[in-house]
Amino acid sequence: MIHTFFSSTLRELQLFLRSWRFWTTFALVVLIFAVTGPYGTSERMMPGMRLGYWLIVHAVAWTIAILFSVMADVLLRPYLRHTLARMMIGSLAAALPIGFALGAIDFTFTGRWNEMDGGLRRALFALPLCALFCLLTYMSMHRQIAAVSASPPAAPSPPPPSTTEPEILARLKPQNRGPLVRLSVADHYTDVVTTRGRELVLMRFADALKELGGTSGLQVHRSHWVADRHVERLRRDDGKLFVVMKDGAEIPVSRPNLDAVRNRFGTL
């Protein structure tokens, strides 16, 4: 249970770290605060100091808010169906530690330490900001968050290799019969690739998949199937995911199969 919690939390945190939208939004917000100098910072601080102050403030506040939102998303998943509701609870809970963190930052820059009631006031002030941050984050990244939340934390183990020869090999010429590498659609044919060669078989792709027997593999696209033992790695190009085979072939992955492919081959 604990391992699953930490694994799921880490996966969602990595989603934020890899998102250009998140970093762009963060940079714009920091720049706006540094230029406008709200809450008297334009009078008290020079431009360079003001930029550093707001950079630290937002880095700390966003880090705490994201951490609390992600943990709440993972912990409350069995009890609340809507991702935004789970994240909002965590984001609002982050207001209290954010309030005291801002007090520590002000002490670093001004030398004045706020008492407990000052930290509580800051926390109350941070509540609407936390809610707004959560809403903006969800609106810009809800698809990615939902995809990560829906995928299982650990990849299932591939089935053991079969000791019986797949039926489809009987359709090939004797010199092409060997361990299966991949299958692909080719008009009305199925292109069967083995370690000993390739051959076009006149049959539907769906029927060809039924004749794989217990061969360990995965359908990565509606037109492609690959054998586990012949997958080398995954490659992303211009937002599209490809399975790179040991023979150098690159097989595209369709959107409905992204999670299954990452879970099966993501650690290669």
Automatic annotation (TrEMBL):
Gene3D superfamilies: LytTr DNA-binding domain. Keywords: DNA-binding, Membrane, Transmembrane, Transmembrane helix. Residues 182-267 form the HTH LytTR-type domain. The chain crosses the membrane at residues 20-39, 51-76, 88-111, 123-141. InterPro entries: LytTR_DNA-bd_dom (IPR007492), LytTR_TM (IPR012362). Pfam families: LytTR. PROSITE patterns: HTH_LYTTR. This is LytTR family DNA-binding domain-containing protein. It comes from Rhizobium puerariae.
